[in-house]
Fold this sequence. Notes:
- The chain is built from twelve helices and two strands.
- It has helices at residues 3-8, 31-37, 41-95, 139-166, 168-179, 197-226, 232-272, 282-299, 302-311, 317-322, 324-338, 345-368; strands spanning 100-101, 106-108.
- Strands 1-2 form a two-stranded antiparallel ribbon.
- The protein is flat, with a radius of gyration of 57 Å.
- The protein is mainly α.
- It is 68% helix and 1% strand.
- The N and C termini lie far apart (123 Å).
Amino acid sequence: MSDESATDGDVEPPEEPRDEPEDGASSDADPALDADDEIEPGDDDDDTAEVDDGTADADEMTADVDDDTADSDDVAADTDDEADADGALETADDDEPELETDGEGVVGDRPEESDTTYPDPDEDVGGISTPPDDEEMPLADHIEEMVLRLAVVLLIGSAGTAIGLLWASQAIDHVWNNVFPSQFEQVPPPHIYHPLELWLTRIKLSALLGIMVALPMFVYQCYLFMKPGLYPNERKYYLAAVPTSVVLAGLGMIFSYLLVLPILFQYFTFYAEGSAGIAYALGDTFNLIITLTGFLAIVFQIPLFMMLAIMMGVTTREWLADKRLYFWAGFAGLAFLFTVDPTMMAPILVAITMILLFEGTLLLLKWTGR
């Protein structure tokens, strides 16, 4: 038995008995056999190192086996978790009711009883409330009411126009003699250049009178139509703004008749004097008078618009004052657009009037501290 087997094993096997050589036979034995039976010290150390290396390799293999075992345990744990999750999902699916379909979509996917409650649409749950007098009406009823109220306005306007036709000729003479400057010794007479010019002028002047009479009724009918849908504060603004608007429109027409038109016709007269004979056409002259008077009635609404915008918080006086140049440019553009005059005198007068109204309103707001 070799020394490696003795080192690896825990118990050394018993040595086999060897036959003792007889006397005189030792000299005859082979010397090589004795050399093999002897163990050199160097060989024993080499064998021990090889055994230690083998032991280290065995330990490394054991560690690798342990790592593989741990990985196998982790994989098994993950597999168990997935199996538990799948089982839970299957259990949940079994608990849910079966969906009913009609071939296009789900018909009943929830039980009839539900914890979710929805508010009654007719119940007041807060937020934006409706006006106290607001009632739902069909669209046809709204249209019918609007038509009836407009019919009342048209009836009153037509009555005013018809009454105006009775005194249209006297009104033409009165307006003609008052729009020209008083220093004229003789006012130039109007000229008619086509057969219907006089009748069309009478109708236009009478229609202007009918509009003036129907305007307050129109405002009142609009208020009655919108009243059920207005909040109390909106009614307050409406009742304060509309009469003010009518008064401002009247002031604009009076301003046009007493100040702007005389200045304008005085300029026209002296502009043409000495160069040609003055012959004002009746129709064209009254077209200019009516257009300018109506436009100034609208221009005089500027203070009201500014006041309402500031009261409702849309803008401030400081912002309007900072942007005054933009407003001046806009006023000039509107004046030249709606008051066509080759001499440029009429749009200049209208633009100056708009700017003065704007600046006067700013001064009033500054004085009142608004």
